[in-house]
Amino acid sequence: INKIAVLTSGGDAPGMNAAIRAVVRNAAYQNIGCVGVYRGYQGLVEKDFIELDARSVKNIINRGGTFLKSARSKDFRTKEGQEKAYQNLKNENIDALIVIGGDGTFTGASVFSKAFDIPVIGIPGTIDNDIKGTDFTIGYDTALNTVVEAIDKIRDTASSHDRLFLIEVMGRDAGDIALNSGVGAGAEEILIPEEDRGIEHLLESLKKSRKSGKTSSIVVVAEGDQIGQNINKLSEDIQDNLPEYEVKVTVLGHIQRGGSPSCYDRVLASRLGVSAVDALIEGESNVMVGTRQKKIVYVDFDKTIGGKKKLDKELIRVADIVST
Ligand code: F6P
């Protein structure tokens, strides 16, 4: 390997900059050239490149977002777009690619790698933590801390006014953010797509906790949850059934994607960034670098793309017990 390109694609996540930094620094350490690609796969098609050396990535470990910017590229989905991207890489003598992103990013990488026989390594970067084969994705820990901080603040006002708050959190089809932030912030109820208990169960449970003496409540709703899909309708249903409460809705939205990465995410991003370059040197291709039980693992794209992570049943039980 003489020269690699690195890009970030899909939704940005805190810690992506730290991952880019680690890729660039390990490349420099191993005397491999490194090029940054702006705007994900779109920049690959349009040859929006920048030469990067160890000094180009100073003072970014602490910054949220991605300085290389991110995009969801339509052009790269076409054969012509991919052809252009490949030619751009060849013209710059780039012989390998590292992509930082989620499932969609890996899908593009896998197609490209197979079609043009170019080694590609993926680094999982998404706040959703929904990538099969790795225990954690870059950005997830920071997002959890942001959510917990926000819920703590909402709790202050909820309890001052005897209100029930429905708080919608991100996560796409996964309930990891909802379940973990819900436990961390002491939510009364947590609605996640992986376990649909139905509205009756929710109403019964809220009534029970009201009877037990609770005067305010926090319900964390994953954006992908079946009954949470229409959060305003859910709010009306709860209001009709629990007139003692004043029901309010807060959608946390993109605040969850921003901010300075937590120490955990910086360390994870540094480890995965270094591992991605190591993997290329070892001759790997078409794999994601991840961590399982603290150890670095290589997972074939085919084994992670489209896969679903197992739900943490034990944590659901804990949530049920500690919210009574
Ligand atoms: O995948 C990260 C994520 O923030 C999801 O949690 C959310 O569903 C989606 O991206 C939002 O996408 P956009 O920023 O394009 O609105």
Automatic annotation (TrEMBL):
GO cellular component terms given for this protein: 6-phosphofructokinase complex
So which cofactors does this thing need?
Mg(2+)
A Pfam family matched in the record: PFK
Residues annotated as binding substrate: T126, I127, D128, R163, M170, G171, R172, E223, K248, H254, I255, Q256, R257
| EC number, as in UniProt | 2.7.1.11
Q: What is its main location?
A: cytoplasm
Report residues binding Mg(2+).
D103
What are this entry's molecular-function GO terms? 6-phosphofructokinase activity; AMP binding; ATP binding; fructose-6-phosphate binding; identical protein binding; metal ion binding; monosaccharide binding
Checking InterPro entries in the record gives: ATP_PFK, ATP_PFK_prok-type, PFKA_ATP_prok, Phosphofructokinase_CS, Phosphofructokinase_dom, PKF_sf
| Activity modulation comment | Allosterically activated by ADP and other diphosphonucleosides, and allosterically inhibited by phosphoenolpyruvate.
Statement: the UniProt record of this protein carries the keyword Magnesium? yes
Protein name as annotated: ATP-dependent 6-phosphofructokinase
Which gene name does the record give? Answer: pfkA
